[in-house]
Amino acid sequence: MTSITSLLGFGAEGWGDDLASGALVTIALALATLPFGLVLGFLLSLAKQSEDWALRLSADIYTTIFRGLPELLTLFIVYFGINGLLKAASEGAGLPALALSSFASGMVALGVVFSAFASEVFLSAFRAIPNGQREGAAALGLRPRQAMVLVILPQVLRVALPGLSNLWMNLLKDTALVSVVGLADLLRQTQIAARVTREPFLFFGTAIVLYLVMTAVSSVVIAWIERWTRRGEPAR
Amino acid sequence: MKNTLDPPLAATPPDARPRRRPGFAGMLALGAWLLAGLSLLAYLAAAWNSDLFARYAPIYLSGLWTTIQLVAISFVVGALISVPVALGRGSKGFVQRDLSTAYVVLFRGTPFIAQLFLIYYGFGQFRDFFESIGLWRFFREPWYCAIFALALNTAAYQAEILRGAVASVPKGQWEGAKSLGLSRLTMLRKVILPQAAVVALRPYTNEVILMVKASAIVAIITVYDLLGETRRAYSRTFDFQTYLWAAILYLLIVELLRHATNFAERRLTRHLRR
Amino acid sequence: MTLLKTLVLAGSALAFAAGAAGAQETDAGKDWSTVVIGTEGAYPPFNFLDASGQLQGFDVDIAKALCEQMKVTCTFVTQDWDGMIPALQNGNFDALVASMSITPEREEQIAFTDKYYQTPPAIAVPKDSDIAEPSAAALDGKVIGAQTGTTHLQAAEALFPDAEVRPYPTAEEYKLDIDSGRVDAVVDDVVVLSDWLKSDAGACCKLLGTLPADPAIYGKGIGIGLRKGDEKLRTMFNEAIQAIRANGKYKEVQDKYFDFDVYGS
Q1: Which of A56, A189, A221, A231 stands 20 to 30 A from C166 (CA)?
Q2: CA distance C172 to C167
Q3: How many domains does chain C have?
Q4: Are residues C41 and C73 located together in one domain of the fold?
Q5: In a domain, C4, yes or no
Q6: Which pTM value belongs to this model?
Q7: With 0-12 CB in 10 A as exposed, 13-18 as middle and 19+ as buried, what is C79?
Q8: Which of C99, C145, C151 is nearest to C121 (CA)?
């Protein structure tokens, strides 16, 4: 039996380089999904506060669906279903066949799930901003848009941060599901290594440690961001 | 709890807001959903196949039952494990505290699917060891492995819920109960836990919902739960409606749970309403 | 944006309904100078990833030989077995060379070339197993492992109605589980099982026997899967299969992996 160091080493025989490339794919997928999910979640939270009941209802339907479905099922529906639609649509329009790669499918599925949860986080953050802030901004002669960008938004982001960091952790962990539709992420590379070497415990154990490192680094970064957003508060 | 802390919504109080007719954007968005819903119905109606339904409806129900059993058993087992973990987290002993913290960080900081693979395929590698301690009969079965993994996972989350809920009961309640001369057990049962339950109800249901969703992964270790049956049906028929039916069933469970909680929460907080 | 999104969703749902009923396109006007080939990469010796992560195997070499014969450039992608047919339909690749049996159920979804090999299924058990013969009675109450969504899994369910058949994502996982004793027997292609039993990894187990290949389940042998309507590509592949059968290239690839005739009668 080959030694652990050579199994986890870098190079042709070792799987270290494969695991590392998988970890990079995992990180890339999570980072690529984040802005998409954040923006969509933010817009949804605006829709949920709209005076227009139709817009509110639409946003609520969205949240209900994508919060309720298992992430794996959402992923299958995007990967098999939306891809089928895209093909039908592009053929119908006479364009060359379009297809979402497993990376893009993962991005769409995870981003949609992230935005559904994020919209609720943003919504409660909006509600935590006292009315006086809006009134004060209006009294200063700021137009609604200026008041939003300069006064409300910075505070909303600060209040929403803990909720959003939770969602980021979930996102990072949910990327592992994309291995099921064939993206060569950390978990899939681990599975391949475990199959070929017949050392499942070693490799899945290593994967768990790598995920722990990723979440640990994330929480350090998040703690730093939280400190930074609170720098304006008076010391207590 | 959230609602009691939150100030009233938006610039004008909701009741003072004129009930506006939907604008262009709202109509468009709602219309889009309506269209999506109708085309889903149209698709399901067009793809309707009574043979398929007769063959797979009972299979789906048995898969659904498997999912429910899996979640229910794991939730209870996880609740039992969560008690010592929660106590350990609040303990003054370094060993207990560090061990339970490590447990919580490990299970909350890594994907459930990786934990499941480690437990199922990883432990399979040590058959001789598990046989020697008489546990192989347990780890041999994918069903038990699935329960084991899901219970360990949820215990880490439940420990945090439990800890938070008990900590949320004001100190005065403990002191008051003690001054009434209640025994520790009566105090917990009659004073502390009912109050903690009000706080914990929503996080606990959320956890059940998350478990229903997470349990969909066990199909990968050969357990035929709802998603497992769905994937089997899909691999036989290559008919996309198999996934849509599963989606409808999952949404039904989750919504049922959510509405049941809302109802229970209203009942439990009757005394707080004015 | 929300609006745009919901619109896109609704529009695509409509397109879905329309597309499901839409007519098949043909590839008559298409220039097949490059062909993307999809395979699984977890089914040795037919297709697998070697220690350095490169695709190898009989399927892969046959595909390369066919591409050379057709004078087209081929690239390979891997895809999990579960999503093989939808990925082909969605255009993630053009030809599916992954040891897929030509069955009536699959022919409703995709087109197949003529067969390029045909081997019977078989059953393997641990060396110390008390299962004496591959009969329904001997496997009563036993646990059988097979790959999910395969003809072998269907055959196992049909031949051994009183056994519990468990579906594994790839062949590699049921091999791990028969080694650890979680399953009492596994059913797969005889070549796949023999190849594994010859290796160190298969030291645990022995071949119990081959199984009858019910044509209702196994169809017409192993073919290359193509999208319906890609008739031109189908003709190209069929002619190439005949050509490499005739010019000795097929035998050359076969002899690299096997010491018997895998084409079947």
Answers
A1: A189
A2: 12
A3: 2
A4: yes
A5: no
A6: 0.86
A7: buried
A8: C151
pLDDT of the residue at B19: 58
- Same-domain check for residues C92 and C110: yes
Q: B247 with B81: CB under 8 angstroms?
A: no
CB contact under 8 A, B39 and C10: yes
Q: Does C114 share its domain with C125?
A: no
Q: Is residue C19 part of a domain?
A: no
pLDDT tens figures, A186-224: 999 998 888 888 889 999 999 999 999 999 999 999 999
Judged against a pLDDT cut of 50, whether residue C255 lies above it is answered with yes
CB–CB contact B227 A73 (8 Å): yes
- Best of A65, A72, A195, A202 to disrupt the C interface (most C CBs within 10 Å) is A195
In percent, how much of chain B has pLDDT > 90? 54
**Domain of C65, in residue numbers:** 30-118+220-257
A-B C-beta contacts closer than 8 Å: 153
C74 backbone dihedrals φ, ψ, rounded to 5°:
-115, 140
B40: chain C residues, CB-CB within 8 Å: 13
State the pairing for strand pair C143-147/C185-189: parallel
Whether residues B6 and A128 touch (CB distance < 8 A) is answered with: yes
Question: Residues C61, C132: one domain?
Answer: no
In a domain, C158, yes or no: yes
CA-CA distance, A1 to A18, in Å (whole number)? 20
The partner residue sitting opposite C12, judged by closest CB among A59, A82, A192, is A82
Q: Could you tell me if C203 lies within 8 Å of chain A, comparing CB atoms? A: no
Q: C166, B35: Cβ pair inside 8 Å?
A: no
Lowest mean per-residue pLDDT among A13-17, B115-119, C15-19, C228-232: C15-19
Q: Which domains does chain A have, with CATH numbers?
A: 4-229 (1.10.3720.10)
Q: Which chains touch B (3 or more CB pairs under 8 A)?
A: A, C
Q: What is the value of ipTM here, to two decimals?
A: 0.89
The residue among A85, A114, A188, A199 with the most chain C CBs within 10 A of its CB, best to mutate, is A85
DSSP-assigned beta bridge partners for residue C55: C49
Give, as one character, the DSSP assignment of residue C208.
E
**pLDDT tens digits, residue range C55-78?**
999 999 999 999 999 999 999 988
Q: In chain B, which among 74-133 make CB contacts under 8 A with chain A?
A: 105-106, 108-115, 117-118, 121-126
Dump pLDDT digits (tens) for A72-91: 999 988 888 888 788 778 77
Interface mutation vs chain C, best among B235, B236, B240, B242, most C CBs within 10 Å = B235
Tell me the CATH number at C169. 3.40.190.10
